Amino acid sequence: MKPVVSVLNAWSCVVISAFAIVILSVLGSLYKSEHHGFTGSETDPEDGAAVAASIFTAVIVYACFFVFCAFQAYLHMRSRRGGAISLS
């Protein structure tokens, strides 16, 4: 199987997706727990659970990006070593 994206794009996507998963998971859990810093003032959203659901949907999307890009990076590493079956 050949990689679809370049090696730099694959590794960049892996790193960005990993950071996004961590940061958005923390934000989602803070909204879900109705943390007063995020839902306490007049300009903040009233329904923290709905905001958390939206954020966790984004976490799922970033997790899919992470898996796809990590597989692309793996394909680049495998092709650099000589493919799945190396004769040397």
From TrEMBL:
The chain crosses the membrane at residues 7-31, 51-71. It is found in: Membrane. Coiled coil: none annotated. The keyword Membrane applies. Keywords: Membrane, Transmembrane, Transmembrane helix. One of its GO terms (cellular component) is membrane. This is MARVEL domain-containing protein.
